[in-house]
Design brief:
211 residues
Length: 211
């Protein structure tokens, strides 16, 4: 049972004890690739991660916006030097992920991915739910104002992919421990279905659901 995929799933690898999986952030990506990349199912996971990375690399989002999205997915990604080096941020970090995926993911034909048309209804629904986020906690290690993350999610939904923005939004609700009223839950379910995600995707925020 897979609850998530792509960049938002990679963020889960940066838990409180991520250093056991590699001394540096890039090592975590490499070791995960080596662990899952030996069969087709694992390579598909890596291809979906690569798709997220390439979408954001080609997007008009700023490095700060990319970092804000990443931080709500990877709550314990380091905000301090690791082995004497500052942790990579924004596009630099995405480029490092892409480099580690290269041995496992065939080079995509056509180069830069195409964002495509984002349906107005999906974009508007993601933005509306982002606006309802009500923080009850701060991010560990590197506090970010919820408004910064909300703005990044809105820009992602508008300029990159509403489906990707939705997955980051789920992580943001969880990271900030934001309540999910019944009306919002119904909207989350509708969007989740619209994007073709499985029922387990919403497990990220189910514990925040209010009746």
């Amino acid at each position: 049972m897979q609850l998530d995929f792509g960049l938002t799933a990679l963020g889960e690898k940066f838990h409180m004890e991520w250093r056991y999986d590699g001394p540096n952030p890039r090592d975590v990506v490499r070791h995960w690739g080596e662990f899952v990349g030996h069969d087709e199912a694992g390579r598909e996971d890596l291809r979906r991660l690569d798709e997220d990375v390439r979408l954001l690399l080609a997007s008009p989002l700023s490095d700060d916006e990319i970092h804000a999205l990443w931080r709500v997915a990877a709550m314990f990604y380091p905000a301090y030097p690791v082995n004497g080096q500052e942790p990579p941020r924004g596009r630099v970090w995405l480029a490092e992920i892409e480099a580690e995926l290269r041995p496992f993911v065939e080079e995509q034909a056509g180069g830069t991915p195409v964002t495509g048309v984002i349906p107005d209804a999906e974009r508007s629904a993601v933005i509306a739910l982002a606006g309802r986020l009500t923080p009850r906690a701060e991010l560990p290690l590197e506090p970010l104002p919820a408004s910064t993350v909300i703005a990044a999610v809105e820009r992602c939904a508008t300029l990159v992919s509403a489906a990707l923005a939705f997955r980051f939004l789920l992580r943001a609700y969880s990271a900030y421990n934001s309540p999910v009223p019944a009306t919002s839950w119904a909207a989350f379910e509708e969007l989740n279905s619209s994007f073709g995600y499985g029922e387990f995707m919403l497990a990220t925020i189910e514990y925040l659901r209010e009746e």
